[in-house]
Amino acid sequence: MKKFLIALLFAPVMAFAAGAALHLDKWPGSVSDKAALQNGAKLFVNYCLSCHSASYMRYKNLMDLGLTEAQVKDNLMFAGEKIGDLMTVAARYDEQKKWFGATPPDLTIVARARGDAGAPKAGADWLYTYLRTFYRDDARPTGWNNVAFAAVGMPHVLWELQGTQVMNHETHKLELAVPGKMSPAEYDKAVSDLVGFMVWMGEPQQEYRQTLGIFVLLFLAVLFVVAYALKKEYWKDIH
Hints:
By secondary structure, the chain is mostly helical. It is built from ten helices and six strands; from the N terminus they run H-H-H-E-H-E-H-H-H-E-E-H-E-E-H-H. The protein has two domains: 25-204, Cytochrome c-like domain (Cytochrome Bc1 Complex, Chain D, domain 2); 215-239.
């Protein structure tokens, strides 16, 4: 039973590994771009948070993106939440499972879950590819399918922005059949911002950690020089 539960826990990761042949477009964003992260947060609360929770984040954490408390309340909170509340959804899990066939996963650490230790940016690349490869498929209950996630249960919530893509079964490539509110370049930038926000949510202190790591390595390098000089001075009479 224990082995079964462990296998069930890591099933999404193993499924991702099994689909490693999929070409992933490289995510062009960065967690250093605060303006992009702010736009990603806006897209997230408008298009994702109605079904997907981010229950390990609080609204007040969004102030770390350079927003004031008033900006968070006025632009990113719509249902009477308090600034210290967790970013959860009102829909019940059993209802969502009935609607979509599966409960929409929490997205707080989705970027990290889709990556791996050897390639931490793979999660961002997967999300960037996934959100740009929805296409119409009348055989699916929602009317949508996805190149990166075949037989996906999630509808294309960003279709108004991207437009409607269809699969050309001769070339096996996606074609834009109906344009959306954004041009392809604008939509790619919006998706990049949204993915950036989800990458940031997975580890809000990652930029600080990376900067601190550089200073630690520099300190150790200087300490090595001092320690080596001290060692030579201490042992010179013996050698």
